[in-house]
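We close this part of the discussion by returning to an individual protein. The encoding preserves chain order, so positions in sequence and tokens coincide. The sequence in question and its structure tokens are set out directly beneath this paragraph:

===
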Amino acid sequence: MSGYAATRDRVEHYFDRSATKTWERLTSDAPVSGIRATVRAGRDRMRDLLLAQLPGDLRGARILDAGCGTGALAVALAQRGAEVVAVDISPALIEIARRRMPAGMHGNIDWITGDMLDATHGGFDHAVAMDSLIYYDAPDIAALLGRAAPRVAGKFIFTVAPRTPALMAMWRVGKLFPRADRSPTMVPQTIVGVAEALRRAGIRGHLRDIERVKSGFYISNALVFEERPK
């Protein structure tokens, strides 16, 4: 998992030191540029898509929001009645999420800074990871799902960056920059590639494609993994 740890640390550095203000504005109602507006709209659509994979009534359910960012998905889950453990590697983003939490929800969401899949977070009925696994390669994604599966009774819903010609071109250009100058780069995936990585890692379960969301510069593909599909 050394590759995972190195990528996780780059993600923390980027969001906690380089992009905090940009991310705070993007995930708010503040006016943004046309390009960022398309990203915001895409993220809103993806959030709704992920929520649609879960019951409308989540009372009594314990759910992991893995890589919660500024907390919009965690709040939506809590509004459905879930007990949410919202984890992000960036202390700055967790602080923004705490400030934005609606009044009366303090008992419904536990905001945690740290590794999103740390075993000490306990077990869950479901887990959601919106755009937080997009920086990892297929073997790391498989290893992450393998770590999480024994502690998630139901669905692990997550997104990947789809392997399109445009994203592959961006990924290749990004590899040319010195490592110290790079922001975290999305690693384009295919569903077949992720499924093959799971097979090679000996991780049993069912991987299902949900839908791809594209909005301007935002593109992401939602998937569901279940160790014991219903």
